[in-house]
Amino acid sequence: MFKQMLQGFQRKTVPFTIVVGLFLLTCSFYEAIWQTPAAHFVTYCVPALLFVAFATGVWMYSFVSYEYRLLHNNLFVRLNILGKPVRAIEVQLDQGTCRLDENYHWRRYMGVRKSLCYLPLLPGHRRCLLTYQEDGVERRLVFRPCDELLALIHEYIDGKEERDGQ
Predict the structure, then answer these.
(1) Furthest-apart CA pair in the chain: how many Å?
(2) CA 134 from chain center: how many Å?
(3) What are the helix (H) ranges across the chain?
(4) Model-level pTM?
């Protein structure tokens, strides 16, 4: 069994500092346009909405974590919020039905439905796309495995385990 955890901001001071900085930046923008010809309703609402959206996203990532577990030939991906499991995906790694794209780029798969199971604002390992069959339907999972987990997944998908046993 192999386990990898991707956690959001470990220290709550990081998102708090980002939110305070954005708030001060928004306030300085308002001071700059106060009593100018550009001062109208939309000019005030757009930065406020952007501030609220980005601050909420940063704040939420401090409570979110993903857990990747590889048990035999099953990959389990769990979304945890405040330490409690919210959503889980199970992928059975088979030779014929699974493909792993280590050079995932979002533009290549723009119109394709996929499950995003990683934290986008945080640096980490490269994103990978795992395509698999579930109930006869092709599904895609985007996640950020570490190098060791990536090597273990390749063992099951490429069939190295089978060749070693024969």
Answers:
(1) 80
(2) 21
(3) 13-33, 41-60, 147-158, 160-165
(4) 0.72
